[in-house]
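Q: Convert this sequence to structure tokens.
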Amino acid sequence: MKGLANLGIAMLLLLTAGLVWFAFQAHGTPSERTAFRETERLQFQVRAMAAAMTAEKNAGRPLPESEEAARKLAKTQGWLGDPPPEPLSYRRIGSDRYEVCADFPMNSELFTRLGGELLRPDLTFNVGRNCFELGAFDDLRG
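A:
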């Protein structure tokens, strides 16, 4: 009888361990969830910057020359909050092209595995600094 009780306890522990493992696989560890939220926030900011640049070109105006002007424009248009995000940088490449860079805390593979959606399928990223070259009329709406 005692052996049967020990077997039941062992099975219960094994089942609990399996459920915990499954939860981490499906939803990530606490640190992965924190990195996931930060990655979502950064992707929103990249999308907001792209929306501001598209609105500027649609209005017939040139893309901003400097990062400061791009941040001010995006904030004025209501795309970025106050204060403007620091991890985001902007660089004008040409009359209709620019680059937006951000420091991502997780790679795009883990981000999508945990349920995140990329800005576009071709805009993947690694941990650390990543830059995306975009056109003034690129659609990054989610």
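The chain has a mean pLDDT of 82.
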